[in-house]
């Protein structure tokens, strides 16, 4: 393992690719809204089957970074640099962006079930891709809802409108929906910020389970959540990744003073 | 109580009074129309043809014409309005071209309907040589209806949360798929309400039709549904006086002895229909939405 100190005011952990399987990685990423640079200096590697938390103050570029990873910034911002997924740079015009988003799924801050039934929400993207076999669809619905740990609550009402669910249930259905197209990376932008504490805990438990099969990157404002849930943490400030390290280290022995201030609440 | 509190209380009282006045005027108007009109309405009145010189005529043909014209106008204008509003709300960039389109729609929607009617007369009746006919009327109604319908649908689309679009794109769907399969269905209650409200407006429209669909209602052969026969109810080339035009017509030149009864009966039917359109708009929109979201 090799740890590099880029500059004295930033610390970015680097894996040894010989020993670790890297699912995603960004290199020299720069994101511009119009002419203004919103995010840069974030050469981060994401290890397979781990949860990485992105933390940092409001406006520090967490969402901007996350949305770049599956090209959701395409029509909104200019993204320069490399985004490597399974070793392939997906930040190129010739890459099929729809396929990128299928493999790198996204769950949003506010639960956003479509105006369809629970069943229809989950099967929708598959049907658009030409899967119509009822048996296959039934299986996917059951499997993903179980993965998202909401099957028991909705299995008798699969044809009820998904928009009539509670926030916590709706968010899980949205996770199941993202899983239905068989991604291997899951991006979540503050997925629990609209949920009550109990739903939040359940969601965290679900993510821990999902880690076995997916690589998870989650933006959160909740320090305890990042500490409880994640294996690695990136601290963003003013559009830069300031520190990237094992979560335990970020929260106990951060290498950068700024990080220390932020995680201990002395920020600003 | 201090001065600002007193002032605001007086203001609230005043606003309440104004609101009450508006409701009162509406109630009086509708009440008057119903009380004088409804006693003249019977099944026979609703189904039999009009009589020009003798008593006992009905509004059957006019009622049918109104409904048929409404349906035709909607069939023509709905796809156009849907396309235009999807373009405006989902694709159009904020530039001079878009704002020009919006201004044009704005102006078109505020044109007096009689002007639209005269335009329809010159274009469809005279230029295209369609004569006073269902088709001239339906096309004119489309012009009359299009701006408002487009705006209604655009507003419904714009009120769909951006989270929905993000959700679609995030699943790897194209923008077009996202719009057609996620945004439009989500906007459906609003779209349906808009369509029904516009239907009410179209149903009650007279000025745009006087010189386009014409002022005569030749007897129809309700046994013949072949649209190519001129006395078939479906024939697009026959003249078709609607209920609203009928009311205007008999009041300006009617000579039947039961003129007042026919006129007030027709007015009651027209107002009742429009009232039903307006009151049902929201309810039907919601119902259809519930049905749809729980289907699959
Ligand atoms: N669509 C946009 N257009 C222009 N500027 C944007 C846009 N989205 C974000 N920004 C700017 O980019 C910077 C980073 O924003 P970003 O949303 O990534 O921050 P964040 O860390 O996710 O904040 P929060 O914790 O509040 O969600 C901010 O200065 C913000 O104003
Ligand atoms: Mg954010």
From N to C, what is the helix and strand string of chain A?
EEEEEEHEEHEHHHHEHEHEEHH
What is the domain total for the residues of chain A?
Answer: 1
CATH architecture tag of chain A: 3-Layer(aba) Sandwich
Tell me the strand percentage band of chain B.
Answer: under 5%
What percent of residues of chain B adopt helix (DSSP H or I)?
Answer: over 70%
Q: Structurally, how many domains make up the residues of chain B? A: 1
Q: What share of residues are in beta strands of chain A?
A: 25-35%
Please state the average pLDDT score of chain B.
91
Output the strand order for the largest sheet of chain A: 1-2-13-12-6-11-10-9
Count every helix of chain B, treating DSSP H or I runs of 4 or more residues as helices. Answer: 11
Task: Give start-end ranges of low-pLDDT stretches of chain B.
Answer: none
Structural class of chain A: alpha/beta
Find the CATH topology of chain A. Answer: Rossmann fold
CATH-defined fold name of chain B: MetI-like fold
Q: Biggest protein-protein interface?
A: A-B, 32 and 25 residues
Q: Which outline of chain A best applies?
A: globular
Number of DSSP helices of chain A? 10
Structural class of chain B: mainly alpha
Helices and strands of chain B, in order, run as HHHHHHHHHHH
What do you see in this structure?
The complex is a heterodimer of chains A (268) and B (296). The N terminus of chain A is likely disordered. The two termini of chain A are 34 Å apart. Chain A is an alpha/beta fold and 268 residues long. In chain A, the strands form 2 sheets. An 8-stranded mixed β-sheet of chain A has the order 1-2-13-12-6-11-10-9, with helices on both faces. Chain A has a single domain, classed as P-loop containing nucleotide triphosphate hydrolases (Rossmann fold, 3-Layer(aba) Sandwich). In chain A, α3 crosses α4 and α4 crosses α6. The radius of gyration of chain B is 23 Å and the shape is globular. By secondary structure, chain B is mainly α. The relative contact order of chain B is 0.14. Chain B has 11 helices and no strands. Chain B has one domain: MetI-like (MetI-like fold, Orthogonal Bundle). The chains are: A alpha/beta (268), B mainly alpha (296). The interface between A and B is medium-sized, with 32 and 25 residues. The complex binds adenosine-5'-triphosphate and magnesium ion (MG). The site of adenosine-5'-triphosphate (ATP) has 11 residues of chain A, from α1.
């Amino acid at each position: 393992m090799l740890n590099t100190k880029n500059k004295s005011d930033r610390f970015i952990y680097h894996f040894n690719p010989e020993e670790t399987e890297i699912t995603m990685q960004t290199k020299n990423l720069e994101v511009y809204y119009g002419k203004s640079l919103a995010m840069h200096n974030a050469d981060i590697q994401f290890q397979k089957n781990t949860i990485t938390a992105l933390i940092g103050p409001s406006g520090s570029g967490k969402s901007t970074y996350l949305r770049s990873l599956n090209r959701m910034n395409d029509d909104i911002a200019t993204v320069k640099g490399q985004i490597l997924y399974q070793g392939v740079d997906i930040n190129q015009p010739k890459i099929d962006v729809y396929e990128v988003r299928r493999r790198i799924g996204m769950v949003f801050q506010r639960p956003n079930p479509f105006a369809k039934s629970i069943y229809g929400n989950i099967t929708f993207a598959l049907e658009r891709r030409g899967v119509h076999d009822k048996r296959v669809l039934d299986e996917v619905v059951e499997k993903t809802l179980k993965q998202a740990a909401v099957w028991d609550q909705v299995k008798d009402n699969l044809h009820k409108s998904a928009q009539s669910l509670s926030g916590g249930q709706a968010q899980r259905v949205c996770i199941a929906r993202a899983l239905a197209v068989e991604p291997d990376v899951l991006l979540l932008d503050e997925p629990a910020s609209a949920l009550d504490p109990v739903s939040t805990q359940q969601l965290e438990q679900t993510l821990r389970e999902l880690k076995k099969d997916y690589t998870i990157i989650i933006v959160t404002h909740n320090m305890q959540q990042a500490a409880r849930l994640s294996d690695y943490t990136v601290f963003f400030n003013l559009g830069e990744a300031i520190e990237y390290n094992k979560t335990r280290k970020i929260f106990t022995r951060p290498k950068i003073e700024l990080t220390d201030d932020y995680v201990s609440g002395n920020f600003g | 109580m201090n001065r600002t509190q007193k002032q605001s209380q007086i203001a609230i009282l005043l606003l309440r009074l104004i609101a009450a006045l508006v409701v009162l005027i509406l109630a009086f108007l509708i009440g008057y129309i119903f009380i004088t009109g409804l006693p003249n309405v019977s099944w026979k009145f609703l189904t039999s043809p009009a009589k020009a010189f003798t008593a006992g005529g009905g509004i059957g043909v006019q009622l049918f014409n109104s409904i048929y014209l409404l349906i035709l106008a909607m069939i023509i204008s709905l796809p156009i309005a849907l396309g235009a509003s999807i373009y405006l709300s989902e694709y159009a960039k904020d530039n001079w071209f878009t704002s020009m389109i919006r201004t044009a729609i704005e102006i078109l929607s505020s044109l007096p309907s009689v002007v639209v009617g005269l335009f329809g007369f010159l274009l469809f009746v005279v230029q295209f040589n369609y004569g006073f006919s269902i088709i001239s009327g339906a096309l004119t109604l489309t012009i009359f209806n299009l701006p408002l319908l487009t705006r209604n649908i655009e507003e419904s689309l714009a009120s769909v949360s951006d989270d929905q679009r993000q959700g679609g794109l995030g699943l790897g769907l194209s923008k077009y798929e996202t719009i057609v399969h996620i945004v439009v269905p989500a906007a459906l209650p609003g779209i349906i309400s808009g369509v029904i409200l516009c239907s009410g407006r179209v149903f009650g429209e007279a000025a745009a039709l006087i010189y386009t669909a014409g002022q005569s209602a030749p007897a129809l052969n309700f046994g013949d549904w072949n649209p190519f026969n001129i006395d078939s109810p479906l024939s697009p080339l026959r003249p078709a006086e609607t209920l609203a035009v009928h009311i205007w017509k008999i009041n300006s030149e009617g000579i039947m002895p039961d003129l007042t009864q026919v006129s007030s009966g027709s007015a009651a039917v027209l107002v009742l229909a429009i009232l039903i359109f307006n009151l049902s708009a929201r309810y039907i929109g919601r119902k259809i939405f519930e049905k749809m979201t729980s289907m699959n």
